[in-house]
Amino acid sequence: MTRLWGNYFRIIIVVTSFLCLVSICSNHSIINLTFICMKEDFSLTTATENGTLKSAYDFNQNQKTYINWAVGFGTILGTFPMNYLFVRIGARIPFFSAGILSAIATGLTPFVAGQSMWIFVTLRFLQGISYSADFAAIGMVISKWAPLNETAIFIAILTSFTSISSIITSGLCASSTFGWKWSFYLHAVSGSILFVTWFLLYKDDPTLHKSVSSKELLKIQKNKSEAHIKDNKIVPYLKIFTSPVILTVWFCAFTELSTFILISQYAPAYFREVLGFDIVTIGLLNGIMTAIHIPFRFVCAFLSDKISFISEITKIHIFNTLAVGCVGISFIVFGFIPAKHNITAVVCLAILECFMSFNSGGFYKCGTLHARQFSSTVISAIQFSKCVALITGPALVNLFVSDESNQSQWSHVFMTLAATTFVANILSFVYFMDQPAEWTKEENCSKKEQDVNC
């Protein structure tokens, strides 16, 4: 039987999965750009201490910190239960449920944002729970559907969801003529449609999917061990969580993601208060700046998978240095560019994001090649580091920045993050390897071993 998609149904799976990842990320991050629009909405007002009226949607810095922290705490609490569900019953039901929960919380946000701070924070917490499913889904899709010689490409596509969501969110907010509330409604409806589509298309095992040809199945399973293909659901958690290789992968991920999250959450405020751009320009610049590095991301992934005259471990070290170490250098430079050279600052930030494009061939690829069939657990734990960054980022800003228009205060935040990237990069040269761990070669373990090590 001739299939419309030929021997490439895995591409349909990765694209629909990617769009769902974009939806969940957009749902929780849209608030950081609409903060600027919301405080100018006087349809609902509250009285200040001196008796004047202000918008009920005008949140102070502490309130914004709590709103962002709620997502981080939700993600922290949801990461390991979500990973357990993904391992035990697969990605289909947990990821679909997370997507629908995210859409509902997003659709309700305009109704509660100006009414009750605590209900608003609770909705943000639920969005964090939903967001905790993202990296477990990435790991599962890569482990089940990606051929080993397409690993970096799959990683590049799936992990670019944060960048694409930023572009979409910026574009919607900048161009919306119906007000900030409609941005939330549109996100909620489109997210629901995407997840229903994904639920109808996706299966956890390609061997059981009628749309996968025998030729494509052979390509997906090529060079994978029997233990990898069988996937007996017994995860050696102790061995994973005590592996120096995996711990270094997580630390590199934490430093790189901390930088990206800080940019996604606070770039609009920095552009407005320090660099002096207006809201429309901010939306456009944020989208353009983020979009620039997308082509680099896929080129880097292609090179990582296809270059054969350099050893795999050398490629991993080169890509990781560009994705982690060079990001730190760029962040320091960005922090010291004078506000009057605002275009230069935007260009510097765009270059920084281009360096991030190399991460699919760096720590992500190292973790996937080393953990093999357990890569879903390893990549899911990267989500944990990401949600920790959702807390440490606002905490750093809260610690150093009391005046959002003070550039020197922001520079302390940038230098702190840069220092962590340098440490992580050095450790990667000590511990990274490209070979599968011994614990990936064990097809089964006894009940006693499962209790102790798994």
Would you write up a description of this structure?
Helix content is about 75%, strand content about 0%. About 50% of the residues are buried. The protein has a two-stranded antiparallel ribbon. It is mainly alpha-helical and about 450 residues long. It has two domains: about 230 residues, Growth Hormone, Chain: A, CATH 1.20.1250.20; about 200 residues, MFS general substrate transporter like domains (Growth Hormone, Chain: A, Up-down Bundle). It comes from Caenorhabditis nigoni. It holds the Pfam family MFS_1. Keywords: Membrane, Transmembrane, Transmembrane helix.
Summary, kept brief:
The chain has 19 helices and two strands.
Number of strands: 2
Arrangement of strands in the largest sheet: 1-2
Percentage of residues assigned to helices: over 70%
Using only CA atoms, what is the Rg?
22 Å
Elements, N to C (H/E): HEEHHHHHHHHHHHHHHHHHH
Overall mean pLDDT stands at 83
For the termini, the CA-CA separation is 43 Å
Structural class: mainly alpha
Report the sheet with the most strands, covering strand number, pairing sense and barrel closure: 2 strands, antiparallel
Shape: globular
CATH architecture of the largest domain: Up-down Bundle
Quaternary state of this entry equals single chain
Helical stretch tally:
19
CATH topology value of the largest domain: Growth Hormone, Chain: A
Weakly predicted, low-confidence segments: 444-454
Which features does this protein show?
Growth Hormone, Chain: A; mainly alpha; disordered C terminus; 454 residues; 2 domains; single chain; two-stranded antiparallel ribbon
